[in-house]
């Protein structure tokens, strides 16, 4: 099982980025997927999660209304659209897959992790 995250980069405050995470090695249409992030010197934290069908989503309060998680099961891919970015959104973003259809908001709820993609938001 491999997760390949992409789409990170440098953006000015107020800008947008879309992260993608492509999964391979198995079919993920019956699994929940999530995004976490880790800022320098801080612990990894939950960002967003989506259930197997895409019908249920959860967001951290810090990104609610600015970020949108979605998935394309035909492509085994999960996305994170990030709008109105702030300098405090700067972090390495990780995608994760859970062996279960329901969402989870904690790290130990996920079984597979991608390598991370760096997002830097300048002020």
N- to C-terminal distance: 37 Å
Radius of gyration based on Cα positions: 13 Å
Structural class: mainly beta
Helix fraction by DSSP (H/I, runs of at least 4) = under 10%
Given the C-alpha coordinates, what overall shape results?
A: globular
How much of the sequence is in beta strands? over 45%
Could you please describe the fold and organization of this structure?
The chain has 123 residues and is an all-beta fold. It is built from no helices and eleven strands. It has strands spanning 2-6, 9-12, 17-24, 32-38, 45-50, 57-59, 67-72, 77-82, 91-98, 112-113, 117-122. Strands 2, 4, 5, 6, 9, 10 and 11 form a seven-stranded mixed β-sheet that branches. It has a four-stranded antiparallel β-sheet with strand order 1-3-8-7, with no helix packed on it. The radius of gyration is 13 Å and the shape is globular. The mean pLDDT is 94.
Defining traits:
single chain, mainly beta, 0% helix, 123 residues
Structural topology:
Blueprint: E1 2-6, E2 9-12, E3 17-24, E4 32-38, E5 45-50, E6 57-59, E7 67-72, E8 77-82, E9 91-98, E10 112-113, E11 117-122
Parallel strand pairs: 2-11
Antiparallel strand pairs: 1-3, 3-8, 4-5, 4-9, 5-6, 7-8, 9-10, 9-11
């Amino acid at each position: 099982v491999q997760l390949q995250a992409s789409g990170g980069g440098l953006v000015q405050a107020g800008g947008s980025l879309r992260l993608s995470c492509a999964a391979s090695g198995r079919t993920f249409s019956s699994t929940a997927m999530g995004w976490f992030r880790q800022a320098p010197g801080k612990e990894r934290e939950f960002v967003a999660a989506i259930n197997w069908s895409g019908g249920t989503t959860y967001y951290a309060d810090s990104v609610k209304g600015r970020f949108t998680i979605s998935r394309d099961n035909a492509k085994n891919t999960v996305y994170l659209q990030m709008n109105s970015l702030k300098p405090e959104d700067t972090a390495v973003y990780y995608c994760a897959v859970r062996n279960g259809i329901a969402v989870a908001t904690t790290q130990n709820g996920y079984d597979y992790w991608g390598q991370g993609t760096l997002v830097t938001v300048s002020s």
